[in-house]
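Why predict the complex rather than its parts? Because the way molecules touch one another can change local conformation, and only a joint prediction can capture that. The input here totals 229 residues.
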Amino acid sequence: EVQLLESGGDLQQPGGSLRLSCAASGFPFSTFAMSWVRQAPGKGLEWVASVNGNGQHTYYAESVRGRFSISRDNSKNTLTLQMSRLRPEDTAVYYCAKDPTKNPRPFRFDSWGQGTLVTVSS
Amino acid sequence: DIQMTQSPSSLSASFGDRVTITCQASQDIMHYINWYQQKPGRAPKLLIYDASDLEKGVPSRFSGSGSGTDFTFTINNLQSEDLGTYYCQQYHHLPLTFGGGTKVEIK
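Output of the joint prediction:
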């Protein structure tokens, strides 16, 4: 059974940094692209970033490019999102999500974690 | 960026009804659209991929159709467990973009 477990969400001041992690199990982690998708309170879904299976190709939404960095450690089955220069509009539940298609870039998300809440406020 | 315009934003229907949600893309996305269900307080769940393919384990009362810029998602024989918010998502071009969501309530 695929399991994705996010951690690291917290309250952070504007301009601060935060590191989110996603522990994956139940599937060959290095085979599939992985992504972060966020949802602001009471709002819809927003794709944030993706990384291909071997970690060599990354993709970002314009709203986070240059501030967030996605990476993966295939030896530990872990996905990471390093967030810096945080803004109040980054406040959201952040979901880790798996793509089932074996393509280098994301197509769809067939498994999701439970989410971790990031709050950016002074 | 490709804009996905989803409608309606909310609807109320009775058990057994047929529910239809539409999504219009701002440009041709061929059949590169997926549909998700999100129940309150839960992560989204993939229901339909590639416009019309049913994800494994998803009941057959859910279906999708369309190509190009206009897409339809249908729930036949609405059940109580179908309440939630439904989102379309395109993957023809990055950035991946989602529709604004349709909240489905049971009368």
